[in-house]
Amino acid sequence: MTERAPNPPRRPRAVDVAAAAEVSTATVSRVFNNPEKVAPAIRDRVLSAARAMGWMPHAAGSALARRRTSIVGAVIPTLDNEIFAAQVGAMQTAFAERGITLLLSCFNYSQDQAFSDVQAMLARGVEGLAIVGESHKPDLFAVIAARAIPYVVTYSHRPDSPHACVGFDNQEAFERLTRRLLDLGHRDFGVIIQPTADNDRVQARLRGIRAALAEQGLAIRPQRLFEGAWSIDFGRRSLRAMLEAAVRSGPRPTAIICGNDHLAIGAVLEAQAMGLRVPEDLSITGFDDLAISRHVAPPLTTLHIDNREIGRLAADYLLARLDGLDPPPPPPLLPDLIERGTTGPAPAA
To answer: Where does the signal sequence lie (predicted)?
Structure first.
């Protein structure tokens, strides 16, 4: 008589994790879906029990058994800006070659939206994530860690970051840009920049400007710093307000550093509308090197970053992690300073 083969071991379930961690199954669910609602000590206990059992929640049914869904997520602020579209396009190409589907989230610079979108992606079984920036709710990275999937932060790069990063040092880039304007003799600066709240990249750029000015004993006057929407219109309105204030309290700035090319193009247009010559009376710089920036008159001085390369490197890193490797994150990219027609020596006093 043939002996019956022993039943295969039962896969661990949430109830087993709950028993091992001495919590309820509802608490196990909260740890993985709403970690901010669980005390850190209890959360750590549940995660330790889940790791020991090799258990991971998943909404993808049979894909859980295989631990493969062939889905990766990209979390970006917006598709209105071509720089993020370039990153996504490069990632899409790299993942498609491996038969992996890319899910996309646009969180519109809202931390709450980013957190909600990441939770939704995890529920759909993404195997990896690429997330723009570090300025997110701490629980966003905690919930990713709870699922034990690889992720990478794009467009940020700092030596002490706890995250794998693919991007560039925003502070260093703007320090270098500001020093170039200082070398041209400029000492009176204005800044038009995107909102710094919840945006680590913009915060770093502003720190870079301030650090370079401080080296020369200079600073940004409060009335010369404008934060707002990254649009041509805001660039125009900000420059007009800045120069009209200078008429009352002087002196007029000779160089305007803008947080992106849209703002800089707006500043150039408004300066010309006010009868100023660019760069003879006023130097203006941007960031991103958008396609239109070389076609405005005069062509825009800006910092160029290879956005497709950021997407490609992010995809390569995640693919290596999905293959079971543990590669180091790539070194930071170095933005190129593209000097065109909107910068020149400071005008004589």
So the answer is: none
